[in-house]
Every structure is written in structure tokens, then in C-alpha cells.
Amino acid sequence: MLNLAIIAVNLIQYLNLIYMKKIYFLASFLFCASIVHAQLVINEVLYDPSNSGLDGDANGDGTYSQDDDSFVEIYNNSSSAFDMSGYQIWDDTTSGGTVQYTFPNNTSVPAQEVVVVFGGGTPTGPFGTSLVLNAVNGFNFNNSGEVIGIKDSSGAWVLFFDSDILSGNPNESYTRNPDITGVFEQHEDNTTLKFSPGAKIDGTSFNLSSGLTENNTFFSLKVYPNPAIDVITIEAAVKIEQFQIFSITGQLMIAESTQGNAINIEALTPGIYFLRVTAESKIATSRFVKQ
Q1: 38-189 adopts what CATH topology?
Q2: d(Cα 274, Cα 268) in Å, to the nearest integer?
Q3: Domain ranges of the chain
Q4: Taking a C-beta distance cutoff of 8 angstroms, is the pair 166, 150 a contact?
Q5: pTM: predicted TM-score of the whole model, two decimal places
């Protein structure tokens, strides 16, 4: 009996040691993962846009769509650009999950800036100074009990958003308050807005280092395709006299007088830019993405 007791004690001690090693390994793994991906933060998620008229038209294209107006906003909380090429947005991660979107090559999120991925439609700003991407086929997010995950290019889970600990059908986004560091709350808890894709909870841009913001107050200005690879087209109801293209830091990249509406941007490196158009002594500014 004594030998059996000793064996039992030794077995318990051995199992405890194995258990503690597993806990230590898991903690170490999570710590290392948090160091690598600490600069990425899910800041705002809309998985249940309001279906009351255009209250849920988050992408601004004039049409309500549950799948197209849903979005995920991710913040780069560092002093350097972050390459999200090959990262993926997943849905229903608790039951295996499905890929909803894969970030294309050369997806670089500027320092202290956000990337917003809409499910589809034709995202029409303003979205601050953010990088805006389009999943095209729509996000198949659930109205409640939603668990969204982000995988890196190696297939490892790096970020999660779990609405189970929040309320069910919010009809608005969940956003951190304060931005980046706060806990999630419904957007209208402390504002009159249902969402603020590409901007802080108060509607201001995350990165204003250039002093440039979108402004179409004086005349309507559309730029397409957006994102673009080699050529962008300007659409305005007035005669365009001059255009300037600035980097996100405010550096003038291109300046020309023009009578046309097509601009060659092949020489620009991938990133976020501002197009400033002068017409009839008035100025309008729009943001676009060069891929």
C-alpha cells in the first residue's frame, strides 16, 4: 500500500509538472505573439448595420446592404508601416471558420493609421486618411454571436473580435472608446453616429501629419477606380483647371494643369495619396490608394 501511495504521489507531481510546462509554454507563446502583433489593433467592427433606410449605409455608396456595409477597421499602433499582405479576415472562428477576405500583395498600413475593409459595394468617403479596401463579395457576418478572427500570412491567429460578451443585434458598430486602447462599446453610446469607418469615434482622422483631409464642400469630386494601379479618373461637375497629388505626409508628388480627367499614377509607389483639384477658383480634395 505504501508503494502504491508513493507511486500515486509521484504520478500527481509528474502530471502537475507537465501541466505547468504546458501553461508556461502557452503563456510564452501568447507573449511572443503579442509582441509581434501588438502594433495591430482591431478598433471598430460593424457586423450588423441598421436596415432602417440608409442608416446602415456605412460604405457611403447610397445603398444599404447587410454584407457590403459591414466592415472591419484595424489600427497600426506603431511608428513604422506594417505589411499586411496575405493576412486574412475569418468568420465563425469558433466552428472552424471561413475566409472572408485576403489582403492583397503590397498592402502597407501606414504608421498610426487604420485600414478599413468593407464587405463590398462602392465605398465612397470621406474615410479620414485611412487605407480603404473592398472585399467585393460581401462579408457573411452573423447578426449576433459573431466571432471574427485575423490570421497572418503564415496562417497563425493574431487578432480576434468576439461579440458574445457584448449585446446581440446592435444595428451599429462596436468601437473602442477611447480609440485604440479602450474597451468596445456601441458607437451611439457616447456619440450620435452609428459608425465612423476610417476615423476616430469623434469623426476625426487618425493620422493628420500631412494636414490634408478630404473636402468636397465646394464641388462634388469623384475619383475612380479606388484603389488604382496605373490611372485614376476624375469626375466633377465643373471644369478642372489644375490638380495636385500629395503623399500622406504632405509631400507634393505631381502637379499639372489639365483639361482632361485621366491621371497617370504609374510612377507613384503603393500607398495613400490625396488628390487636390482646382476648378473655378475653388478647391476639392479626395483620398485615393495606389496599389
Answers
A1: Immunoglobulin-like (2.60.40)
A2: 12
A3: 1-37, 38-189, 221-290
A4: no
A5: 0.67
Please write down the HEC assignment for all residues of the chain: CHHHHHHHHHHHHHHHHHHHHHHHHHHHHHHHHHHHHCCEEEEEEECCCCCCCCCCCCCCCCCCCHHHHCEEEEEECCCCCEECCCCEEEECHHHCCEEEEECCCCCEECCCCEEEEECCCCCCCCECECEEEECCCCCCCCCCCCEEEEECCCCCEEEEEEHHHCCCCCCCCEEEECCCCCEEEEHHHCCCCCCCCCECCCCCECCCCCCCCCECCCCCEEEECCCECCEEEEEECCCCCEEEEEECCCCEEEEEECCCCEEECCCCCCEEEEEEEEECCEEEEEEEEEC
pLDDT at 14 over 60: no
pLDDT at 248: 73
Quote the CA–CA distance of 245 and 256 in Å, as a whole number: 9
Average pLDDT over residues 23-42: 52
Are both 38-189 and 221-290 of the same fold?
Answer: yes
| HEC per residue, 134-196 | ECCCCCCCCCCCCEEEEECCCCCEEEEEEHHHCCCCCCCCEEEECCCCCEEEEHHHCCCCCCC
Instruction: Kindly state the average pLDDT of the residues 124-137.
Output: 82
Q: Which of 32-46, 175-189, 262-276 has the highest mean pLDDT?
A: 175-189
Q: pLDDT band at residue 34, thresholds of 50, 70 and 90?
A: very low
Residue 200: pLDDT over 70: yes
**Fold (CATH) for 221-290:** Immunoglobulin-like (2.60.40)
